[in-house]
Design a protein that fits this description.
123 residues, mainly alpha, rod-shaped
């Protein structure tokens, strides 16, 4: 003969409801803390990465997703987010340097070609 336990019969007692509320409240607090940290890190980083705002948001979302896979997301998220933001900043700096180098090269080529063109025209 099988016995039904109290939580297997479909009814939840007052203890289960109280536990459920406590868990939901705790999760809500963690969500709020992470959202607050995410917004703060975004606001601090947005000025330096104005052109890469989309990548900044993606980096923060990725850090949050990884943090939720740990047992302590509210503790892990700030460090992960900072690492991700630093990686985006480093990538942006390399991109800016490449753009400046390409522009300088392009400008030099244009000036050289313009000079050759003027020399042929006898100007």
């Amino acid at each position: 003969m099988k016995r039904k336990h109290a939580n297997q019969n479909g009814s939840s007692g007052p203890g289960v409801t109280t536990l459920k509320r406590a868990c939901l409240a705790a999760c809500g607090k963690v969500l709020g803390r992470i959202a607050g940290a995410k917004q703060m890190i975004f606001n601090e980083s947005r000025g330096a990465l104005r052109e890469q705002e989309r990548l900044l948001r993606l980096a923060l979302n990725e850090a949050e997703a990884v943090a939720w896979q740990t047992g302590y997301p509210e503790l892990v998220f700030p460090a992960l987010a900072t690492e991700k933001v630093q990686a985006v900043a480093a990538w942006d700096a390399k991109l800016q340097k490449l753009r400046r180098t390409r522009y300088a090269w392009w400008s030099a080529q244009l000036a050289r070609n313009h000079g050759r063109h003027q020399a042929r025209a006898g100007l």
